[in-house]
Structures are given as C-alpha cells and as structure tokens.
Write a structure and sequence with these properties.
Length: about 500
C-alpha cells in the first residue's frame, strides 16, 4: 500500500507542476507494473507469478561447449551404431559403422544452448506442473558425410497432475537424470527417456509406487532374421560401404506399449527403487520360415521383460555432497533396459569397432549385432536374447569447488545357440572425471572413458543363411578397446 500510495502522490505532484497528464499516467503505470509481477515462494527459489494468473513460472537452462576426443554425441564412445558418424571422413561416407578408417575424425566439437520452462499451479485436485526443455546445438560433424551445422535439440516435455505424468520424460524404469555423476551416458544401466502415461501413488514416509505405459518404439532393439551385412567377401577382400554393417530388422508393427512399474523409497540417507517392465516383441516371419511365401505372411509374438534395482547412498561423513549409486538389471527379449547405446534417446542394434585393412586378416576389432529376438535355424522360429548389467558410480568432493565422478560398468548379452549370425557379447566401461566450479553454476570439466567390446569368437567371415534361405557371409566376432573422452565448459542458469 505504501508504494502504491507513493505512486499516486508522485502523479499528483507531476500534475501540480504542469508535467502533463501523460507523464502522470506513466508514473502510475510503472508503479502498478512493479506491484504486478510477484515472487512465488510456494515452490522454492526462482519462481514468479505470470501476471494476471495464479500460475508460477520458472526459467532455466544451460549453455555448454564440448570437445570430444574419439567420441561423438555427448561423450559417446564410437562403439555402437547410434554413434556411427565417427567412422566417416569429412565430406564423404568412406566407411560406416563399425568400420574405422585412417580418415576418421579424431575429435568433434559441439555447442548447445538449452532453455527450460517450468510452470506450477496449485488447484483443488493438487498441483499442475509442466516442464519443457528444448534448444539448439552446433556440431562440427552433424551427420555421416555432412559438414558442420546447427540442429534443433528436444529433451523433455511433460505434464503432471494429481499423480499422473503424460508426455516425454524419464522412463519410470530408471531413477531419473538427477542420479548421474559422469558427463557420458554409460552403456551399462538404463537411462532412457520416453513417451509415458504414468500414475504415481504416494504412501507417505518417502514410499511411492508408479505404473506407466511407455512407447515401445524407443525400447525395441530390433529383430534379426538374417545375417548381418558383410564387410568382406568370402575371399577376404574389403567391400567399401557408406552405410556400414547392420541387419534387416524384422520388427513387426507396434501394437502394445511397454508396461513399466516401480516401487521407490526416498529417505534422508538416499534412495532405493525396484522396477520391472513387460515388452512385446513382434517378429515378422522371414521367407525361410515354413509355409511362408513372403515376409510378414505370419508373425511371432513374444513377451520380453526386464527387472532392475537401483540404490543411492548419501555419504556426508566422507565429504559434503558425496554419493554412491548402484544399479543392476536383467532383461529377456528387452535388451534396451540394459542400456547398450550410450544415449538416453536412441537404441542401438550393433556393438563394436573394426579398424579396416585391405583384407580381413589385416583388420582388427569387433562387431556384434544385438536384437530382442533372433531367428533360430534349428527350431525355425525366433528365440529371445537375454542379458544383464551392473554398474557403480561414486561422486566425491575434494573441496566445495572441486569434485570427481567415477563409473564402473559391465553389461553382457547372451544369444541362443544355432541362431543367425549372432554371438554373445559384453561391454565393460570405466569413466573418471574432474570438474572445477570456479563460480556458482559454472563447471569446467575433463573426462576420460575406457570401453571394451568383447565376445566369444574371433573376428572372422562366417557363412550364414539370409531370410530368403540363400547363403551369405557376415563379418562378426572379435574384441576391441577404445579410449575416448573430452572437455566441457557449462554455465547453468
């Protein structure tokens, strides 16, 4: 009232001294505007009321500059087909995933700006919350064979109301992005974002449970009914290809979403969560199947599933802010719930890296296709692939402005016997970083990543049968070690 009264007094003085009605009106408007935008303290710091409404708004985001060494796509080491652009020389597709040539780029740069817009409104039925995170980035190597350029970046957009969540958010199979101590997205452990329709029930004392319907497209690793495309002929001569090595995906159309559920306990000491998922695997029958005259003449429907356990311990007795995070997962016909892609948005259907030579004997490395299900030549039907993953992360503060993150992870994929061009494979990773915070919300960090892809057979050209029943050769097997990493400068606001 005092400031409003002062405004009217100033307006009156202006009129008395002949400043004119326009100036007086401007003074009153300015005073009203000062009163109109108010801080919203009900939901924490940074919120303010949208003028004329009871909705609180918070703006945030970040600006980051990354330099990746032997890595692409947010520190993703080049060991899967979601990071295949690392294997192409600038301007032309010399070789696609998993082939590495002498012309492959040794480094990549990315600058990204992200804006987060969050609103909260208290209603008679509970709080309505929306979150939209989006931005744009510039890459020095945007796509295979494509020169540097900018592209839009979409991260998350969802609505929460009365326990319901609808939109693109963290999968309810994992604990969310808040629990990650490294800059890379690891290969062991689930980190997927997805389109969800979920309900969360709060039972008090930090106990909650969620049930979620989630888009199966983001979780479908693939269905392999034929051999992987060959990189070498039977005689061992290299076949140059810009598209790389892969297999024809016999995934049937989506008919059911994944059913995901979790039970979670949040306490002052940390978090404990158990989760599970059901995933339908629809597989088209290849022409090699009995009584099938064309692809898709019939189909197999299998039920894939996954279970997971997550726990985070807060360790202030070691140093303020110290934390330990453990995750374990098992999957049958739902491999994406193990991780295996190095990104929270895209799934991978192949692992490895092959340093090419003029012949297979002069090449080294590894390539293994992975799929939710693979064609079995003995049973003339599909069999699901299984796997498990275990990982640990530790964050330690050396001092309030200097911290480190350490990650160790291992994921194994088991392929049924007598299947088409597929073999067991595992991925081991170790990550370490050092991050300096010289000013509030400003991070300057470096990270080093060691990745190993290994399997049960040596790298070789192997005869296999295609989906039509014809004989072909596929390059599979082997092992490889990849060192990668980079540097990041990020300002959060």
């Amino acid at each position: 009232m005092t400031k409003i009264y002062t405004g009217f007094v100033l307006a009156g003085v202006a009129l008395v001294h002949g400043l004119g009605p326009a100036i007086a009106a401007d003074l009153v408007k300015a005073e009203k505007a000062e009163q109109y935008v108010k801080v919203c303290s009900a939901f924490g710091e940074g919120y303010f009321y949208i003028p004329g409404t009871d909705t609180c708004l918070k703006l945030g985001g970040y600006l980051r500059s990354d330099t990746y060494v032997n890595a692409v796509g947010t520190f993703n080491p080049p060991i899967s087909n979601v990071s295949g652009k690392a294997f192409n020389a600038p301007g032309a597709g010399v070789a696609g995933f998993p082939l590495v040539t002498a012309d492959s780029s040794d480094y990549d740069t990315r600058t990204r700006g992200l804006l987060a817009v969050e609103t909260r409104t208290q209603t008679d039925y509970g709080m309505v919350r929306t979150l939209f995170r989006f931005g744009e980035q510039w890459d020095s190597q945007a796509q295979p064979g494509v020169s540097a350029g900018a592209s839009l970046y979409f991260e998350r957009a969802f609505i929460q109301f009365a326990g319901f969540t609808a939109g693109y958010a963290n999968s309810f199979f994992n604990a969310g992005t808040g629990i990650t101590y490294i800059m890379a997205t690891p290969y062991a452990g689930d980190n997927m974002w997805n389109t969800v329709l979920a309900y969360t029930a709060e039972f008090g004392n930090g106990i909650s449970a969620s049930l979620s319907l989630e888009d199966a497209a983001n979780r479908s690793t693939g269905v392999q009914a034929g051999a992987a495309s060959s990189a070498y002929t039977e005689a061992g001569a290299l076949i140059p290809t810009a598209t790389g090595m892969s297999y024809v995906d016999y995934q049937a159309g989506l008919q059911l979403p994944d059913l995901v559920g979790n039970v979670r306990l949040d306490q002052t000491w940390g978090t404990l969560m158990l989760s599970g998922a059901l995933h339908r695997v629809g597989a088209l029958s290849p022409m090699a199947a009995p009584f099938t005259s064309y692809v898709g003449g019939s189909a197999d429907n299998m039920l894939g599933w996954a279970v997971g356990a997550i726990t985070e311990f807060k360790l202030p007795m070691l140093a303020p802010g110290d934390r330990l995070y453990l995750q374990a997962n098992y999957a049958d016909g739902a491999l994406n719930y193990l991780g295996l892609s190095g990104t929270p948005q895209v799934h991978a259907s192949g692992l490895g890296a092959i340093q090419v030579g003029s012949t297979l004997l002069s090449s080294s490395g590894a390539y293994y296709p992975i799929a939710d299900a693979v064609w079995n030549n003995d049973t003339l039907s599909y069999s699901t692939e299984t796997g498990w993953a275990i990982s640990a992360q530790y964050k330690h503060y050396w001092m309030p402005t200097l911290r480190s993150g350490l990650y160790l992870g291992y994921v194994a994929v088991n392929v049924p016997e007598n299947t088409v061009g597929a073999f067991d494979v595992n991925v081991a990773q170790a990550v370490a970083n050092l991050v300096w915070t010289p000013a509030r919300n400003l991070d300057i960090g470096v990270e080093v990543i060691y990745s190993r892809v290994d399997g049960e057979v040596p790298l070789a050209n192997r005869a296999a049968t295609t989906a039509t029943g014809a004989a072909t050769y596929a390059t599979t097997g082997g092992s490889t070690d990849v060192w990668s990493g980079g540097m990041r400068v990020q300002r959060n606001f």
